[in-house]
Amino acid sequence: xxxxxxxxxxxxxxxxxxxxxxxxxxxxxxxxxxxxxxxxxxxxxxxxxxxxxxxxxxxxxxxxxxxxxxxxxxxxxxxxxxxxxxxxxxxxxxxxxxxxxxxxxxxxxxxxxxxxxxxxxxxxxxxxxxxxxxxxxxxxxxxxxxxxxxxxxxxxxxxxxxxxxxxxxxxxxxxxxxxxxxxxxxxxxxxxxxxxxxxxxxxxxxxxxxxxxxxxxxxxxxxxxxxxxxxxxxxxxxxxxxxxxxxxxxxxxxxxxxxxxxxxxxxx
Amino acid sequence: xxxxxxxxxxxxxxxxxxxxxxxxxxxxxxxxxxxxxxxxxxxxxxxxxxxxxxxxxxxxxxxxxxxxxxxxxxxxxxxxxxxxxxxxxxxxxxxxxxxxxxxxxxxxxxxxxxxxxxxxxxxxxxxxxxxxxxxxxxxxxxxxxxxxxxxxxxxxxxxxxxxxxxxxxxxxxxxxxxxxxxxxxxxxxxxxxxxxxxxxxxxxxxxxxxxxxxxxxxxxxxxxxxxxxxxxxxxxxxxxxxxxxxxxxxxxxxxxxxxxxxxxxxxx
Amino acid sequence: xxxxxxxxxxxxxxxxxxxxxxxxxxxxxxxxxxxxxxxxxxxxxxxxxxxxxxxxxxxxxxxxxxxxxxxxxxxxxxxxxxxxxxxxxxxxxxxxxxxxxxxxxxxxxxxxxxxxxxxxxxxxxxxxxxxxxxxxxxxxxxxxxxxxxxxxxxxxxxxxxxxxxxxxxxxxxxxxxxxxxxxxxxxxxxxxxxxxxxxxxxxxxxxxxxxxxxxxxxxxxxxxxxxxxxxxxxxxxxxxxxxxxxxxxxxxxxxxxxxxxxxxxxxx
Lengths: 268, 268, 268
Description:
The structure is a homotrimer.
Chain A: H1 2-9, E1 16-20, H2 28-39, E2 45-49, H3 57-67, E3 76-80, E4 91-96, E5 99-104, H4 109-112, E6 119-123, H5 134-147, E7 156-158, E8 171-172, E9 176-184, E10 190-195, H6 196-202, E11 208-212, E12 215-217, E13 232-236, E14 241-246, H7 251-255, E15 262-267
Parallel strand pairs in A: 1-2, 1-3, 3-5
Antiparallel strand pairs in A: 4-5, 4-6, 6-7, 8-9, 9-10, 9-15, 10-14, 11-12, 11-15, 13-14
């Protein structure tokens, strides 16, 4: 019976997600996966994406921010993207809203979290075997530890230090919001950093103009397909953020949209 | 003991496959995966591909048609590709040959099924939280319901309506078949819509000429490698469909092959 | 109770990894996955990559060589890449360092293994249904057999024949090593075929010059980030191989690095 209990207990493992800039052609993603399975053969590993642009912590933050909450509470999110300035290679485990995050201290977390994390641990319980790839030894161990439901505080020393990042927040006064495009998705939708809450706060009259380059619209559509004749469609998407789509625009115009392009809303 | 039984029962879950046009860089695929695991942590989720061209229901149909039968009976196939005209966003669950299909009513199923499905249910048992992404709420719930072996009829109302699609079927008379390329694979093999059955029916003399652009051949090869000197190789592939490969052709010629290019067979 | 034991035993299945040149848009990878799950629904299937260049056995060998050891002992590695000359389509299962390898006899294994494998079996226990895709029938069956812990010798006849490949080994004399770039990763790091052991053997004085094109360095850095001002950084990476990175180089120069470019080390 005892043997049965042991084996059945592993069904309670939490999933481990991986977000990285490893790409999908190389062997790094598989090496990390293999190491995780060597530590815990029953682990459920979910690839979020390995196609973050190299060293692009900002892009990673948009992906992680919009992903983690859909996973079960207690899930572990490995985020293995090195900022180009992450010289000291400090590796962290963090707890935030009943999710765990493991990876280098690369400035990501200031962009992902709206509030301070509940706990930050600087990982130091494992020897590094590979100086060039410390995440392989340290972060896989921490991820399995947390997925098994063990205590985060056993992984190292508590800290409050975190490489800070300034999230690009929209600026606003009484009747204007100026935000920007933070992500362009596979369908050429431009996701901005303007939240529904910011918008609702200033939208007292129900009259407003959203401007993006030479385009504008005066309404929020319920879905992307709502106004196929219009050129600019503004939607609050599943991310809770204002998204901009250009219908009937030429491919050249669509491809001309860039992260950091300005979106402006004037309320009457 | 009762507790044991509960946990062991989940090993009987059927796999859920996902075919989508989400791409592999964004967070949509991971959000769907996370939602599925939140509903059923032990679910086995298999990515078929997230790289269907945006809104390309036809390409999705070729992939799904040639994939689903290799999975165990009872598997659930989430196909999350919106046709550009799918304005009304009707979400369906279908049963066909002991497999389940879940996704928007986008015209896919007329291209995937040779016969009418055994059951069509219009999904209405779940509230939509995200107007811009109704599949996230509705289809994940239905997929988990079916993977758990629960009854499809509990998911909504029976219907017989289905957005119709005309599968591009070859035309033939007594001694000619005119078909077309429906898919070009990673190896530059051109898969046509000509089935082995159509071919066998007209191939009484064993003498025929297969023409593709300026190329032709007068035999079917058993494998791609059989006739490396010939320029045009014709094979009945693992799909059961006539496939055309050009050996020794220049890259320019290979890349010039397009979906909808005509393939013609004249029998003597 | 007996029923319990049966179900619990499948938790002891070993993982099956897949490395292929199927690409990620087509249905071949999913068809193989579906077939594996049809044979063994509880199988844990890990995608290493499906993005090996078509027929590129050499690239596959670099990926497999650097991946397999990170997985648990007993893992099964399906390597489904056909060399363009693999006309006879001989399918093998091999045992090497307590790992199993299954796939066509395409010259890969001479590049992956440093010593002779412990066992080579020519697979012949399954009927081929698809002449154009024999791996689908034969290799999936063998992979599941091995993942279930069954004996490799039941899969066919022992053999010692193996398509031979000359691994490109560095040449060296008393004070020079001439190696070459064998892989360029997602970060533009150039991985060479020079091992740390070769290097240590000749590095008696601690004085050496590593040359790569017009660049050179006279030290080995502990990590990629160690010497950000230098143009050429030389590192022994997690692969155990000498890796070359160019910092501050233009994109044009980075993109000019090619597999088979020469790296030379002169010791004093």
